[in-house]
Design the sequence.
């Protein structure tokens, strides 16, 4: 008797996620991203501001930073936000919002996305939304059922069955 291989392709196929579920998960994740932005501001921006300029008089926040310094801080913030999704997707294929709405990011074979796919997705998904949502509306055109960034990264978002 030969050993049975544990291959993700033997899993049952799950239906593609609807745009409504994707948006609901996105709203849920926005709350978590807001908390990450606040933590980044508290842990990075405010200490740097105090170290460089001392205690602020009336103006707080970004005022007083040079353009280059603001750019570096924004790149750091973007990397931090992308890092949240990267860790979630590489570890289990789900962000917290996706978990709440029973969505999972995977490759067509059922495997978790690669590191390269996760980073590209972190760049392309916001661009899909920024272009008046056209990248997301792409999934409404039959027979696609996948967003533009899904297609470009070779990934898919599926709806998981209810757990018993």
Sequence:
């Amino acid at each position: 008797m030969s050993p049975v291989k544990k291959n993700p392709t033997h899993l049952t196929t799950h239906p593609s996620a609807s745009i409504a579920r994707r948006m609901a998960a996105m709203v849920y994740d926005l709350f978590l991203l807001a908390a990450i932005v606040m933590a980044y501001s508290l842990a990075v921006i405010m200490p740097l501001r105090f170290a460089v300029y001392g205690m602020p008089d009336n103006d707080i926040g970004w005022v007083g930073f040079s353009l280059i310094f603001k750019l570096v801080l924004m790149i750091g913030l973007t990397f931090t936000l992308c890092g949240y999704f990267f860790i979630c997707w590489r570890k289990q294929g789900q962000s917290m919002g996706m978990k709440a709405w029973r969505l999972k990011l995977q490759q067509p074979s059922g495997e978790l996305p690669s590191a390269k796919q996760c980073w590209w997705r972190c760049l392309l998904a916001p661009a899909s939304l920024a272009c008046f949502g056209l990248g997301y509306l792409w999934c409404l055109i039959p027979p696609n059922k996948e967003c533009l960034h899904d297609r470009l990264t070779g990934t898919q978002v599926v709806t998981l069955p209810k757990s018993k």
